[in-house]
Amino acid sequence: MRRSAFFLRFIGIGVLFHLYVGVRLIPDAPVGLPLKVLAVILLAASVIVIPLGMAARQIEPQSLADRLAWLGLTALGFFSSLLLLTFARDVMLFFVHLVDWLRGVPIGSPALVAYSALAVPLLAVLLSAIGFYNARRRAPVVSVDVPIADLPAALDGFTIVQISDIHVGPTIKRHYVERIVAAVNGLEPDLIAVTGDVVDGTVPNLADHTRPLAGLTARHGAFLVTGNHEYYSGADKWIAEFRRLGLTVLLNQHVVLDHDGARAVIAGVTDFSAGSFDPAHRSDPAKAISGAPDDATVRVLLAHQPRSATAAAEAGFTLQLSGHTHGGQFLPWNFFVRLQQPFVAGLEKVGGLWVYTSRGTGYWGPPKRLGAPSEITRVRLVPSIPA
């Protein structure tokens, strides 16, 4: 019932936003009546297909659901840019008119009003095309050196390749995952970290598309922690499936690695919000490190959400690898991430804890990335230089 009410509010707000865009652009655009009628029809269609795309997971058969998802989510990505640019145009016109008023000249330039109304949808199309390319290409490799105090010599150069937030689902399928796995294996890492939100859908619908993950290869293996989307999609069944694929799933647990005579702890916690889905899965960094040997001073935590960092620092971890944020994925959402998370992307520090937040290896929702490129992250441990 609560979900239905939210969805109805989403549709209502969407209708209002479409009306705003239509009223602000269509009358001013320097085009003929047929094109204006077409614009009205396209906006009306957008009002319908966006909610259908968002709800496609509930639709059968799967092939129809995927097509609706592609259509609706692509439309959502385009409309997001259209709405933002329409608002930016209104702000620009306000200041132009204000300057005209202050100068005592006739307010408003008819040419500016007209051609800016035409420029907005054209620019939205261009940005959406660039964003689509960025989302659908294979994520590039980002290399990050993390300086560790008193790093054992054997662990100098120890390499972790992190992938996160692939979101296998309506628009991300097997071939997309195969390209990621090939790129990861090509880096020949010591360890692979999969930091959650691998899937958006059920095991029966997506098992074939996640199967390439069984091919991940590293000296010490591939480790996975759950993200919030695993809990939306049936976490227990997915945990069993990931283990069947050969991934080591860490549920508030750790393992001790022996790397050329040096020991390191690799721990993982369930998603920060997991306890609201299953109390037995409450995220607990202290539990994850409990019992770890004292001589293993390098302690790496895999935690889907960056906001696990405070508890991780208190528990004595050295490095936390996270995802979840997508780096905002596309404007303007990167400005809102910090309302929920302490970090958006990149390497940060909390006390003695390094935190690296991946922008994600796939995308969620609209196939679109602008200003927040996806990544396969190659993390290398290096000795810190004394101050």
Automatic annotation (TrEMBL):
GO cellular component, one term: membrane
Transmembrane segments: 7-27, 33-56, 68-87, 107-133
One Pfam family this sequence matches: Metallophos
Gene3D superfamilies, sorted: 3.60.21.10
Domain Calcineurin-like phosphoesterase: 159-327
PANTHER family the UniProt entry points to: PHOSPHODIESTERASE YAEI, TRANSMEMBRANE PROTEIN WITH METALLOPHOSPHOESTERASE DOMAIN-RELATED
Gene Ontology MF term list: metal ion binding; UDP-2,3-diacylglucosamine hydrolase activity
UniProt keyword annotations, A-Z: Hydrolase, Membrane, Metal-binding, Transmembrane, Transmembrane helix
Gene Ontology annotations of biological process type: lipid A biosynthetic process
Name of the protein in question: Ser/Thr protein phosphatase family protein
